[in-house]
Amino acid sequence: MDIGCEQFIDVSRKLIRVSGKDAKKFLQGILTNDINEAACSVIYSGILSPQGKYLFDFFVWNFNEEEFVIDIDERRAEDFKNTLNLYRLRSDVLISDSNQKVLLGLDMQSPSSSIDPRNSKLGWRKLVEEGFDIEKLNRNEDLVKKYEERRIELCVPKYGHELIPNESYILELGFDKLNGVSFTKGCFVGQEVTSRMKHKTSLKNGIIRFRNAPNFSLKNNTIYNEKGQKAGVMSSSINGMGLGLVKFLYAKGKLICAGNELDVLEEISGSV
Predict the structure, then answer these.
(1) What is the pTM assigned to this prediction?
(2) N or C: which end of the chain has fewer CB within 10 A?
(3) Model confidence over 144-156: pLDDT tens digits?
(4) Closest CA to 158 of 230, 54, 51, 6
């Protein structure tokens, strides 16, 4: 296999195998997305709390009716497995670790890879075996930064930045625009709250993109409006591009973070 110059193993990911006679039915009952869409491909999905708040986001790879692989941030893997076991009860489902790795690419698509289901401009993903020759991939910081720049430019939320467990609501962070939630599949954990937010309310908070962002720092990431009111927080930034979580009511006029006047790239309306 030829190794492209813009491919790297994403060492931040952990793979978890969900298998067994009831695996498909089990996942369909708790995931925000429709597991049927993962047939011979990959989908983006999540698990919510019963109150409709974000707990986990991940990719689901489907190989057959009884075998699925979850591609998730390694920092969330153990809590994720505990949550699956909580819902598993007496289902014929086996939850185990996989030794495969996630290969990401921003150049020509590799055979047997899948385009990122959130946005095709985020490149492609592929599962490779543990013995895959990663030394040839030259995973340098410039390439990692390029991927992060593209994520921010495309307004794609990330765990620990925009996606905060037990705090975030996925529609406020554009999960529906990222093909991460189905409103036609039927019930899932947190479905009632999510559906109500979609069909009966206007969003009060949301994610915005902006330029002239200061370097990201959790200690100095508050966004203020020109009246000095707290309008939100900057959640990610790189090379002057940033993402912010804001309250639409206060995010009017000039917005300032760490002394920088932000150039807002979204129309702030508060509608779904």
Answers:
(1) 0.92
(2) N
(3) 899 999 999 999 9
(4) 54
